[in-house]
Amino acid sequence: xxxxxxxxxxxxxxxxxxxxxxxxxxxxxxxxxxxxxxxxxxxxxxxxxxxxxxxxxxxxxxxxxxxxxxxxxxxxxxx
Amino acid sequence: xxxxxxxxxxxxxxxxxxxxxxxxxxxxxxxxxxxxxxxxxxxxxxxxxxxxxxxxxxxxxxxxxxxxxxxxxxxxxxxxxxxxxxxxxxxxxxxxxxxxxxxxxxxxxxxxxxxxxxxxxxxxxxxxxxxxxxxxxxxxxxxxxxxxxxxxxxxxxxxxxxxxxxxxxxxxxxxxxxxxxxxxxxxxxxxxxxxxxxxxxxxxxxxxxxxxxxxxxxxxxxxxxxxxxxxxxxx
Lengths: 79, 235
What we know:
The structure holds 2 protein chains of 2 kinds. Chain A is of the alpha+beta class.
């Protein structure tokens, strides 16, 4: 099984990286860029086939460690 | 007094912290992060550096080191804990201090001297800092922007938990004096119980005139004073 976790900065947190990337895109000539948010992507390969058990485990890991709930949100997909 | 300075893989201000304490005539020793016990310790310093390469997030992995369980217990029992720079990051990740440290607003790593205004003398980390004295201390960080949500900030204010603000040479809290975009120019805070503190600037690098400033000594002196008072009370 493979778990995909996307960690993004919370909306309330300033994202200077995102802003910088947005500015660069505009400078490069790309139009219509409303906003950019820079986050993190993790891929976790797992043994077994029990998706639900894996989801429970990884939600806990994502909340406790893989993301910092003070400043980040996360999305978890398991395939 | 016995100061214990933690050492994580890639901590790099541990030796300076030990030296800073010794310059004041007190005892300090390094403690490897895998240790489960602090041993004889009156205070713990969580030093600066790039523990675990700042992988995932600064301090995110170090906070799970075996020694941190002992530090948590020590803090719960009222022990004094000071986190400097990466140490501050470790303490926020560990939940021993509120809020978080994020990337500097201008995305640059700042390595320079800054000025600190002490917000309150009512703490074991600031009691010996003369009223009105502006501290000159170096910073060296890329992720020192203090962030906390509105509720937390209000609570910090209400409980007098903000210990230091970035200021200019005259003590004004201006935007230019803020090297990293920290909310409200917050440079350092303590917990509600006032026994755990964290700050991004490096007091251990400002303990001798030779280093350009000896203002950092005042923070260690405050801790020592608090510990000596406790000892006197217990006697």
